[in-house]
Amino acid sequence: MASPIPVKEKKLMEVKLGELPGWILMRDFIPKGIAGAFQRGGVAGISMVLAAYVLFNYCRSYKDLKHERLHKYH
């Protein structure tokens, strides 16, 4: 019987939805760690970082976007 893999060592596609917040918090976000992720992942790593950046900014500005959408222009 194989021993369970620690969440920190799992790849993104192996992480279950409930483990995702803990997995994100264990990532190395210093420039050296991000550069290492790009080297290991290539284009996939870059696209995941870009997608995370876009999602983060959308969530941050959702309140303003929602207000603009509901605003009636006369």
UniProtKB/TrEMBL annotation:
One of its GO terms (biological process) is proton motive force-driven mitochondrial ATP synthesis. It comes from the Eukaryota. It is found in: Mitochondrion inner membrane. Keywords: Acetylation, ATP synthesis, CF(0), Hydrogen ion transport, Ion transport, Membrane, Mitochondrion, Mitochondrion inner membrane, Phosphoprotein, Transmembrane, Transmembrane helix, Transport. The chain crosses the membrane at residues 37-59. InterPro entries: F1F0-ATPsyn_F_prd. GO terms for molecular function: proton-transporting ATP synthase activity, rotational mechanism. Subunit f, of the mitochondrial membrane ATP synthase complex (F(1)F(0) ATP synthase or Complex V) that produces ATP from ADP in the presence of a proton gradient across the membrane which is generated by electron transport complexes of the respiratory chain. ATP synthase complex consist of a soluble F(1) head domain - the catalytic core - and a membrane F(1) domain - the membrane proton channel. These two domains are linked by a central stalk rotating inside the F(1) region and a stationary peripheral stalk. Belongs to the ATPase F chain family. PANTHER family: ATP SYNTHASE F CHAIN, MITOCHONDRIAL-RELATED (PTHR13080), ATP SYNTHASE SUBUNIT F, MITOCHONDRIAL (PTHR13080:SF16). This is ATP synthase F(0) complex subunit f, mitochondrial. It comes from Nyctereutes procyonoides. The lineage of its organism: Eukaryota, Metazoa, Chordata, Craniata, Vertebrata.
